[in-house]
Amino acid sequence: MKALTKKRITALLALPALLFAAPHVLAQSEEYATPVELFPDFSDFFEQALARDNVPGGVFAVVHRDRILQIQPFGVRAAGSSALVDENTVFRLASVSKTFASGLAAKLQHEQYFQWQDPITQYVPEFRFQNESLANQVTVEHLLAHSVGVVPNAYDNLIEANYNRTRILPHFARLNPLCEPGECYGYQNVLFSFIEPVLEQSTGVDYATLLSTELFNPLGMNNASVGLEQYLAAPNKAAPHVRGQSRWFSRTVTPHYYNFPSAAGVNASAADLAQWLIAQLGYRPDVMPTEVLNDLREPRVRTVRDLRRRGWRNFIQDAHYGLGWRLYQFGEHEIMYHGGWVQGFRADIAYSPEHEVGLVILLNAESNVINDISSQFWADVLPRLEQERWVPYYHASTTRSAETDPEQQRANSVRPDTPLPLLPIQPLGNSSAGAGLLNR
């Protein structure tokens, strides 16, 4: 028997859903007889992009509402190896880790363990600027919104020198903010990591345990972990690769950014991040309640520099930072986004609250091709969902009406005898994003 390719396996796994839906779709008028393709040719586009740049391995996942529509691996875990990447292969997430820190913090803040307006000196009394009164103005919210006002990436050079937070902390007494806290944007890793003592002191539990008990375990993120030791212990993990003159070279994973787990210390697979996206889309209110998600999505500070972001600048009309997430005005639509980059790895995660679609991309090489893949996905999908008169909701098994009750949510799964809802899309105007490269 001829071996099945991963792409054919993915297609076969999708058949039950299509067969399930077909009688109901055909029962509608001919206008709705053919299901809309959510991401036509995206698998080929993804594989061709990685192959052109000789990326050793990668994987993407697409979710719609509460369902994983597709997970598509590509290539090998390490150059020269025969071990293939799959949906459970662990990658370093780098700054995508910030989405977990902010999600955990927002969840605990709504449970009243602390307040957004608490001064950071309440938890880190040694924190100082040259002007001590300015240090007292920095709040927990400013940390997660990158709005402390300090020069961007302050003391990342000391992270690279393998300093931990305790050794770096006294250096902030040499600085003053460029603006009043809360008034301007400056991306941070060291300052962002101050959320860890806030959460640990307010709960009495260490940060890694909080992530596991509050997020990873209840969401079924079975491959997710925090730290270098956990990465090294994973039997199915991707290796990092950096670019040489003619090819990609593997590198040894270093502990530097793992010293700042909230900023860059999470390890996870595409299957894990798909579950995280489903929670971000509102289909796991038992873990991420609606009010928590709304808090994360509220724009805190404008990020003008993102308007020049490689691969995205032709599409983004405006940009802000919320709490651990970037908010992009992508043509006429809003998407939540974050990227990650640490030696040898790239990661992207994004979702559309409006259309309830999400995308994850993980690469085991520092390839800028990830920018083009992510932006072109949204450039194709968002206008398509706007222009088409319905969305194939047979992919989703639950409804919003049950979101406050997880047990009822599971009980309300779509069954063969349940009519499928058709969702009219109201045009929002001509999108400047265009149809993108995927319509070739």
Descriptive labels:
440 residues; alpha+beta; Beta-lactamase; 8-stranded antiparallel beta sheet; 3-stranded antiparallel beta sheet; globular; disordered N terminus
Fourth CATH level, the homologous superfamily: DD-peptidase/beta-lactamase superfamily
Major sheet size, sense and barrel closure = 8 strands, antiparallel
Which consecutive residue ranges, at least 5 long each, have pLDDT under 50? Answer: 1-36, 389-440
CATH topology: Beta-lactamase
Helix/strand order: HHEEEHHHHHHHEHEEHEHHEEEEEEHH
Content-based structural category: alpha+beta
As a whole number of angstroms, the C-alpha radius of gyration is 22 Å
Which strand order does the major sheet show?
Answer: 2-1-13-12-11-10-9-8
Mean pLDDT: 84
Separation of the first and last Cα atoms: 34 Å
Q: What best-fitting shape do the alpha-carbon axes yield?
A: globular
Total number of helices: 15
Please indicate the percent range of residues in DSSP E strands (runs of 2 or more).
15-25%
Number of domains: 1
Overall CATH class? Alpha Beta
Give a concise summary.
The chain is α+β, with helices and mostly antiparallel strands and 440 residues long. The chain has helices at residues 6-27, 42-52, 97-110, 132-135, 140-145, 156-160, 165-168, 195-203, 207-219, 228-233, 261-264, 270-280, 290-297, 369-387, 406-411, and strands at 57-64, 67-75, 91-92, 225-226, 241-243, 248-250, 266-268, 301-302, 316-321, 326-330, 333-342, 345-352, 357-363.
Report on the structure:
It contains 15 helices and 13 strands. It is of the alpha+beta class and 440 residues long. The protein has a single domain, classed as DD-peptidase/beta-lactamase superfamily (Beta-lactamase). It starts with 5 loop residues before the first helix and ends in a 29-residue tail after the last helix. 47% of the residues are buried. Helix 3 packs across helix 13.
